[in-house]
TrEMBL record:
PANTHER family: POLYNUCLEOTIDYL TRANSFERASE, RIBONUCLEASE H-LIKE SUPERFAMILY PROTEIN. It comes from Fructilactobacillus ixorae. Residues 1-103 form the YqgF/RNase H-like domain. Could be a nuclease involved in processing of the 5'-end of pre-16S rRNA. It is found in: Cytoplasm. The gene is ruvX. This is Putative pre-16S rRNA nuclease.
Length: 140
């Protein structure tokens, strides 16, 4: 069963997909969105769900460090409701505190990626970390 991981922001959605066994996550794409204009990139998300035979979507919840939910958590939950309603796939949520920080650290330390290039891939890497965390917790 393939699982999709999403890192939902106000301007982009990072997308990762698991392998068929659900062991590893691979960042695949960044979908541009515009929350202010009510453009959520759902057509592209639907194409990726269909093309990859996704059976479950995991969306990162960017909780505050004290475990409270701010406006981005509410936005991520709204996005999850839209995905569930439009594509009829189960949606689960994964705590994603510090995944963007970790993604940036990985890109700097392991890949020595420039700041300009990091901005172009960070959401995809964050989606990969969100999904990998979910996979690790559910296979252990």
């Amino acid at each position: 069963m393939k699982i999709m991981g999403l890192d939902v922001g106000s301007k982009t959605v990072g997308v990762a997909i698991s392998d068929a066994l659900g062991w590893t996550a691979q960042g695949i794409e960044i979908v541009p969105i515009n929350e202010d204009e009510k453009e959520f990139g759902l057509a592209r998300i639907g194409e990726l769900i269909t093309a990859n035979d996704v059976q479950l979507v995991v969306i990162g919840l960017p909780k505050n460090m004290n475990n409270t939910a701010g406006p981005r958590v509410k936005a991520s939950k709204r996005y999850g409701k839209m995905v569930r309603a439009q594509f009829h796939v189960p949606v689960e949520f994964e705590d994603e505190r510090l995944t963007t920080v970790e993604a940036e650290r990985m890109l700097i330390e392991k890949a020595d990626v420039s700041r300009a290039k990091r901005k172009k891939v960070i959401d995809k890497v964050a989606a990969e970390l969100i999904l990998q965390g979910y996979l690790d917790r559910n296979h252990g």
